[in-house]
TrEMBL record, chains A, B:
Species this chain originates from: Pseudoponticoccus marisrubri
Residues annotated as domain Cob(I)alamin adenosyltransferase N-terminal: 1-27
Protein name: Corrinoid adenosyltransferase
Principal location listed in the UniProt entry: cytoplasm
Similarity remark: Belongs to the Cob(I)alamin adenosyltransferase family.
Reaction(s) catalysed by this chain's protein: 2 cob(II)alamin + reduced [electron-transfer flavoprotein] + 2 ATP = 2 adenosylcob(III)alamin + 2 triphosphate + oxidized [electron-transfer flavoprotein] + 3 H(+); 2 cob(II)yrinate a,c diamide + reduced [electron-transfer flavoprotein] + 2 ATP = 2 adenosylcob(III)yrinate a,c-diamide + 2 triphosphate + oxidized [electron-transfer flavoprotein] + 3 H(+)
GO terms of molecular function: ATP binding; corrinoid adenosyltransferase activity
UniProt keyword terms in alphabetical order: ATP-binding, Cobalamin biosynthesis, Cytoplasm, Nucleotide-binding, Porphyrin biosynthesis, Transferase
Subcellular location: Cytoplasm
Biochemical pathway: Cofactor biosynthesis; adenosylcobalamin biosynthesis; adenosylcobalamin from cob(II)yrinate a,c-diamide: step 2/7
CDD domains found in the cross-reference section: CobA_ACA
Cellular component, GO annotation: cytoplasm
Amino acid sequence: MSDESTDANARHAAKMKKIKAARDRMMEGKTEEKGLIMVHTGPGKGKSSSGFGMILRCIAHGMPCAVVQFIKGTWVTGEAEILRNRFAEECRFFISGEGFTWEVQDRERDIAAAQNGWKIAREQILDPEVQFVLLDEINIALRYDYLDIDEVVDFLLHEKPRMTHVCLTGRNAKPELIEAADLVTEMSLVKHPFRDGVKAQKGVEF
Amino acid sequence: MSDESTDANARHAAKMKKIKAARDRMMEGKTEEKGLIMVHTGPGKGKSSSGFGMILRCIAHGMPCAVVQFIKGTWVTGEAEILRNRFAEECRFFISGEGFTWEVQDRERDIAAAQNGWKIAREQILDPEVQFVLLDEINIALRYDYLDIDEVVDFLLHEKPRMTHVCLTGRNAKPELIEAADLVTEMSLVKHPFRDGVKAQKGVEF
């Protein structure tokens, strides 16, 4: 192993240790209930859907909640529609900027959109009214370094109000986020109909 | 390997081959859209939540849907409450029998409840009005053989209307069901706060 990669590994280990220590301090003296940092990741389905399932539970329990969508799909998603039309009072709904285009030439615009989404996310998390915040597909923005992972993790560990739940979704969650989280679920794909040429369908995919 | 286990393996392989053949026939001449058999399994979170997330999408799209819950929790779940109070017209909601008690002495009652749930499930799936049916925690009833797996798989492959979607949730999905399904997602637990003594919380767990 080169000195450079040994250094990188050592830095990584030190960083992880620091995150773990911060997390351990946070967990010390915990009472029975606390706001959770939750991550839904992996290549399988259900990462966003289960986040929206939890939003539905919050609405049922009268817990004010908020959603920030970091990826604006090309279709109008069912979740967005129903939250805006039927639950506007119970759940605040935001789509960050203009969304990603996945095209390199718009990288600057994508970064600005992600940063704007994170600004909204911070405001919602800090708002004492809001008890649950879903940051849908934020992992994509983190993966491409449109957002700074250290800043996000630091905010979640040190500035998030103690009782507020935050759920972060999207594949390829960064190890720093997994280390900081209380609950991490990995969704794996065992079988998928797209392989057989079946297209995305209403109700199931969007 | 004993003759007995060789026989068992051969029977299993033959059964799987038969299920696969039936599935392949079903897939032949498929058009672009078809009703899917979906399975959410594994020890992680999000199996039921993402099923309810899809229900929310169906409601948004005006697709009539139905939920049959095979396990009645000891708490009133948020999903049940909101579906019954706010979406009674869009989504039919059933809890099978009196639910499971997980106590051996009530096995007969549990079997009756599961069978009753399956009767309702069949009716909802066959109802041409209904486009999406969520069979929540049916895998538990299948695992304990409260329902016959061959009967369930046979019904899904041969009697389910072509365009109807069915989503079956619960850990330990039987291999026969996975073989028959179009889309299978496994939820794995990477990290869970219960390990640290944090209790189940409103909005997150129920």
